C-alpha cells in the first residue's frame, strides 16, 4: 500500500492481480518508499513481461499450475483411461522405389514450405559452453549445424525451383526460436557469417521467454535467490514455438503467400535433412495435417515413443509419449515388463525424433482456437513422500509435439518411420554419460553424431553403386563406434538419392581410411578409386570430373581425451581429431570444364 504512489495504473493492476492470485508474499519484504524504488519498478517490468508472454497471462499460469500441482500430488496418471497400442504409419527405406517417389514429391512441395528450428535450449545434458547450433556437425570441413541447416534449405529451394521449372521461385522462410540463453549468440553467428548465404530477410528470430518458478503446491511464485525484487524463472520448453509463431503474425503472411507446409526441427541432428524431402512427400501425398518423423527406437532410449492412445470412452489419438512416461504407462496397462524391446530388437513403439510437418491451413485454424497454447505438465522434485514441499522450485513445461493433443478426431495425424542411419544422430549427451550407455543403445554424443554422418554418406554412396569399404570399430571417449571413410558433401551436391546418383558413374571405390570432402555442385565422380584424402571446392559454374586412382598418405584420426582442456572444447567432446598428413586439395574458382584424373 505504502509504495503505490510509485507506480503506473498498469503496474497497480498487475499488483492487484498478484495479490488476488495469492502472491502477496512477493511484496512482504518491500521497504519504505524511497528505498530501492528503481528495483521495485523493475520488478513490475518483469511481471509485465511474464504476463504478456504467456497465453492468458500470469493469472492463467498460476491457475493451471495449481491444478497440475494438485494432480501431481494426488499421483494422478496423465493417461488415465487410455490404453496404449502400436500405431500404423508409413515405413520408408532409403533408395527404394517408394522412397524415391516420395522424395521427388517432397522436393516439389518444398517451395511451399517454411522451416522452424527450435534452438532455445542450452543443452544441459551436453554440457557444451557455446550454443549448440554453432558446434561443428563434423570436423572434416568444420561446418556448424546452423550453416548446414541453412545450406540444406537453400539447396531444397533451388532443387524445388528446378523441378517445378521456376513456377514459384520463392525464398523459403526460415524461423529460429531462441531464448535469452541463445538469442544473442545465434544472431551473432548469423551476422558474422553473412547468414551463411541466406537472405537476412528470409530469416526470423523469435525469442521465447522463460516462465515463473513455483515454490509450493499453492503455486506461490518463487523469488529469485539472486535478487529479492525478481521472480525466479526457468525455460518453459519447446512447446512455446506454437504461441510465438501465432503471435508473430508470420503464419498469416505465409498462407497469404500460398505456402502449405511448416516443418519444425531440433538443434543438433546432422542427418535430418536427408530425410526431409521424402517425409514432406509423404505429407503431401497422404494429405497429413500432422506428420511426425520417427525411427526405430531402442527400449528406454531417451526419445519419445509414437503411440496410439485409445480412451475407454472411444476417443483415440496418435501422439508422442515422452520417454519417462512410456514405461510407467505400459506397466499400468497390462505390460508388466514395461518399455522393452520386442523380437526385432527394438521397442514396438517408433521413436519420435521431433521433426514435425504440419499443414499450414489446418494449423492456423487450430491456433485461432488455442492461441498456440499447448497442454502443459509439471515435474516437481518432492522432498519426501508427503509431497508437501519441493527440493527446488519447479515450473510448468510444454512440448511442441503435444500440439495434436487438442485436435479433433477428424484431423489426419500420421507418422513416417525412416532408417535411423539416414535420419537421426543428435548431439545431446556429454562424453561421461555417453560412455555409460548400455552396449547397443545409441550414444547421442558428439562422437556418435559425427561418425553417423560419415556412415550415412558411405551408405548412400553404396546405394548408388560406389564400392565403399567396411568400417572399423574404434573407441573414442569410452564409446565404441564404427569408423567409415570420412565422406562429406555440401547439401547442394546431393540432397536426394537421385541427385547423388546423378553425380556418380562408372566403377568408383573408396577405402576405409579415406577422407573425401566435396564443396561444390557440379562435381562428378567417374571411375574414381580413392585411397587417401581428397578435398574439392568449386564454384557453381565449374564442372569438375574426378577419376582415376588417387592415393596419398591421407588423414589419421587421433584420440583426444575429453578431460584434456588444452584441446578446444568442440574437439575434445568428440574424443578425436584429424592429423592431416597428406591430401589432394583443389579449388576451382572459375567457371569452365575441368578434369582431375589421377
Ligand atoms: N528447446 C527450446 O527451443 N526451448 C526450450 O525451452 C527447450 C528446448 P532437447 P528433449 O528427438 O531427440 C525431445 O532438450 O526435450 C529446443 C523430445 O521431447 O534436446 O529432452 C532445444 O534447443 C523427445 O520426444 O530434447 O527431447 C532442442 O532443439 C525426443 O524426440 C529441442 O528443443 C527428443 O527430443 C529439443 O530439446 C529427440
TrEMBL record:
The keyword Electron transport does not apply. Its cofactor is Mg(2+); Mn(2+). InterPro entries: Nucleotide-diphossugar_trans, UDP-sugar_pyrophosphorylase, UDPGP_fam. This is UTP-monosaccharide-1-phosphate uridylyltransferase. It catalyses: a monosaccharide 1-phosphate + UTP + H(+) = a UDP-monosaccharide + diphosphate. Belongs to the USP family. Its EC number is 2.7.7.64. Pfam families: UDPGP. The keyword Nucleotidyltransferase applies.
Amino acid at each position: 500500500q505504502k509504495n503505490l504512489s510509485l507506480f503506473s495504473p498498469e503496474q497497480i493492476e498487475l499488483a492487484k492481480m498478484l495479490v488476488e492470485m495469492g502472491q502477496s508474499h512477493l511484496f512482504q519484504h518491500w521497504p519504505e518508499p524511497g528505498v530501492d524504488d528503481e528495483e521495485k519498478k523493475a520488478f513490475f517490468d518483469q511481471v509485465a513481461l511474464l504476463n504478456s508472454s504467456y497465453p492468458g497471462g500470469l493469472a492463467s499460469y498460476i491457475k493451471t499450475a495449481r491444478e497440475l500441482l494438485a494432480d501431481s500430488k494426488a499421483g494422478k496418471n496423465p493417461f488415465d483411461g487410455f490404453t496404449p497400442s502400436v500405431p500404423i504409419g508409413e515405413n520408408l527405406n532409403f533408395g527404394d522405389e517408394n522412397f524415391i517417389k516420395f522424395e521427388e514429391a517432397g522436393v516439389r512441395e518444398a517451395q511451399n514450405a517454411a522451416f522452424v528450428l527450435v534452438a532455445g535450449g542450452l543443452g544441459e545434458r551436453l554440457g557444451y559452453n557455446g550454443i549448440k547450433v554453432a558446434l561443428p556437425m563434423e570436423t572434416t570441413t568444420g561446418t556448424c549445424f546452423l550453416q548446414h541447416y541453412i545450406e540444406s534449405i537453400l539447396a531444397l529451394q533451388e532443387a524445388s525451383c528446378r523441378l517445378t521449372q521456376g513456377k514459384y521461385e520463392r525464398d523459403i522462410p526460415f524461423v529460429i526460436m531462441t531464448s535469452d540463453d541463445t538469442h544473442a549468440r545465434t544472431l551473432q553467428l548469423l551476422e558474422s557469417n553473412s547468414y551463411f548465404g541466406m537472405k537476412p530477410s528470409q530469416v526470423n528470430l523469435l525469442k521465447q521467454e522463460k516462465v515463473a518458478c513455483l515454490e509450493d503446491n499453492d503455486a506461490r511464485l518463487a523469488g529469485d535467490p539472486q535478487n529479492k525484487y525478481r521472480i525466479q524463472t526457468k525455460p518453459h520448453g519447446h512447446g512455446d514455438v506454437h504461441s510465438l509463431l501465432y503471435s508473430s503474425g508470420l503464419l498469416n503472411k505465409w498462407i497469404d503467400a500460398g505456402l502449405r507446409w511448416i516443418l519444425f526441427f531440433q538443434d543438433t541432428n546432422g542427418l535430418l535433412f536427408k530425410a526431409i524431402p521424402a517425409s514432406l512427400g509423404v505429407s503431401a501425398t497422404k494429405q497429413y495435417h500432422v506428420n511426425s518423423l520417427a525411427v526405430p527406437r531402442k527400449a528406454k532410449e531417451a526419445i519419445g515413443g509414437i503411440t496410439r492412445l485409445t480412451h475407454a470412452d472411444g476417443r483415440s489419438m496418435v501422439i508422442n509419449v515422452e520417454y519417462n512416461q512410456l514405461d510407467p504407462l505400459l506397466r499400468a496397462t497390462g505390460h508388466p515388463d514395461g518399455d522393452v524391446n520386442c523380437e526385432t530388437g527394438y521397442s514396438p513403439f517408433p521413436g519420435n525424433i521431433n521433426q514435425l510437418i504440419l499443414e499450414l491451413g489446418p494449423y492456423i485454424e487450430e491456433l485461432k482456437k488455442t492461441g498456440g497454447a499447448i497442454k502443459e505438465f509439471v515435474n516437481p522434485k518432492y522432498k519426501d513422500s508427503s509431497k508437501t514441499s519441493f527440493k527446488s522450485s519447479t515450473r510448468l513445461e510444454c512440448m511442441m509435439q503435444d500440439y495434436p493433443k487438442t485436435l479433433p478426431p477428424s484431423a489426419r495425424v500420421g507418422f513416417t518411420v525412416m532408417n535411423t542411419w539416414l535420419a537421426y544422430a543428435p548431439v545431446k549427451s556429454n562424453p561421461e554419460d555417453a560412455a555409460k550407455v548400455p552396449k547397443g543403445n545409441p550414444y547421442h554424443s558428439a562422437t556418435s553424431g559425427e561418425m553417423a554422418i560419415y556412415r550415412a554418406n558411405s551408405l548412400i554412396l553404396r546405394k548408388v553403386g560406389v564400392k565403399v569399404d567396411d568400417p572399423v570399430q574404434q573407441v573414442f571417449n569410452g564409446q565404441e563406434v564404427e569408423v567409415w571413410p570420412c565422406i562429406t558433401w555440401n547439401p547442394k551436391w546431393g540432397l536426394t538419392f537421385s541427385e547423388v546418383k546423378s553425380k556418380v558413374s562408372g566403377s568408383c571405390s573408396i577405402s576405409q581410411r579415406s577422407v573425401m570432402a566435396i564443396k561444390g555442385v557440379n562435381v562428378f565422380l567417374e571411375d574414381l578409386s580413392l585411397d587417401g584424402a581428397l578435398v574439392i571446392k568449386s564454384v557453381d559454374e565449374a564442372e569438375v570430373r574426378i577419376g582415376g586412382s588417387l592415393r596419398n598418405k591421407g588423414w589419421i584420426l587421433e584420440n583426444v581425451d575429453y578431460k584434456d582442456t588444452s584441446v578446444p572444447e568442440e574437439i575434445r567432446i568428440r574424443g578425436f581429431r584429424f592429423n592431416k598428413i597428406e591430401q589432394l586439395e583443389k579449388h576451382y574458382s572459375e567457371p569452365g570444364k575441368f578434369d582431375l584424373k589421377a
